């Protein structure tokens, strides 16, 4: 091996070592291929460096998305493109794509999806959550049932304050299935504190099968329900979804399922609260 080759080999080893020390794994993995292309295309040094850095940035973005998706605890991964707007014509497709621009997130605004079970409320909430993750925003998904279980454990362990702080951290908090079970006094007060602390700071997406006028029954306290709604609705968009269950559409087509789903009461927002 010539002196020149020796020097080149030592330089290459130093580059690999430094890339490893700086944790630039994607650059280390592709430096040979990019260097070869740079020689073939007669790139400038800056162009060569630009291509290497682009690979590293892309790798870090991918890792960040994977991590944020895992931390979000989404029940499934679905996008707006997978939502059947033709089955639920009451959902304004243009409005949903406007919401997916995440302007609401930048302003700390909330979104409330109202409608009977199975009409796609959770799908839409998750789709907006995934859109937020794609923009490297922190998201956390929680059903109200899971939240109630957490709160009752936290009371025993004196961790309610910690839970409140934890749920205030994500840029977007998704609370699913509000209204299936009434909240006791402790849970209702926790919800008030949570909504108050996130007010105009962090967005909430909430799904419910109850109209706003029925929220007094959920919280067993009309005054508390009104105070929560006042903060949720001040800067918000309400999406009313009317129609039948998407999950039962095939059964209905076959004539197997009739009755309850056919007579479901429409869930609408109380005009006095909008």
Identify the CATH homologous superfamily of the largest domain.
P-loop containing nucleotide triphosphate hydrolases
End-to-end distance: 80 Å
**Gross CATH architecture of the largest domain:** 3-Layer(aba) Sandwich
Tell me the series of helices and strands, N- to C-terminal.
Answer: HHHHHEHEHHEHEHHEH
- Largest sheet at a glance? 5 strands, parallel
CATH topology of the largest domain: Rossmann fold
Can you offer a commentary on this structure?
The protein is an alpha/beta fold and 274 residues long. The protein folds into two domains: 3-71, no CATH class; 73-273, P-loop containing nucleotide triphosphate hydrolases (Rossmann fold). Helices cover 54% and strands 10% of the residues. The chain has helices spanning 3-21, 25-41, 45-72, 93-99, 103-106, 121-134, 144-157, 160-168, 185-198, 215-219, 222-234, 249-253; strands at 110-114, 139-143, 172-178, 203-208, 236-240. α9 (185-198) links the parallel β3 (172-178) and β4. α9 packs parallel to α11. The protein is elongated and about 85 Å long.
Question: What's this model, at a glance?
Answer:
This protein is α/β, with parallel strands linked by helices and 274 residues long. 54% of the residues lie in helices and 10% in strands.
Features:
Rossmann fold; 5-stranded parallel β-sheet; single chain; 274 residues; 12 helices; 2 domains; alpha/beta
Ordered list of secondary-structure elements with their pairings:
Elements: H1 3-21, H2 25-41, H3 45-72, H4 93-99, H5 103-106, E1 110-114, H6 121-134, E2 139-143, H7 144-157, H8 160-168, E3 172-178, H9 185-198, E4 203-208, H10 215-219, H11 222-234, E5 236-240, H12 249-253
Parallel strand pairs: 1-4, 1-5, 2-3, 3-4
Helix pairs in contact: 2-3, 3-6, 8-9, 9-11
